[in-house]
Amino acid sequence: MKKDSAAFFRELKEDAVTYAALKLELLKLGAYERTGKVISVLSYGLILLILALFLILFALIALAFFLGDRLHSPALGFALVSILYLLIIGGFILYRQKFRTMVLNTVISALNAHENNHNETTSEDNPAGDPVGTQGPFAGTVPDRGTETK
Q1: Which of 4, 47, 87, 111 is the most buried (most CB within 10 A)?
Q2: Total-model pTM
Q3: How far apart are CA 41 and CA 104, in angstroms?
Q4: Which residue pairs from 62-71 have beta carbons closer than 8 angstroms and sit at least 24 positions apart in sequence?
């Protein structure tokens, strides 16, 4: 009887160590996933921002040439576009806190939308809300590590 209880507690200890290691691995993978999502959202946003800046730059250069042609002075056309640039920069500086809040809310909502989609998918796979590992073909099984006593 004493030998059986010693084996039981040894297996229990091994299971607890395995559980802790797997839980740590799960936390690491979750952190990697979150980091990857943030980097992908930020890089996507950065690429779109760069493309938008080039679009705006070329549109304003075209506007400068158009105004210069209409006013018969290319320098005056570029001067007017420069004033427009200054007004845009002034608007961003004046409303920088609202702009920061808007960008922050957009990023957070994008991350939360992905998280909500992930949670909805998980809840569809697990409608009872049971913890992971309590459903499916391997529910309630402990991986065999060759420590069983016969």
Answers
A1: 111
A2: 0.55
A3: 12
A4: none
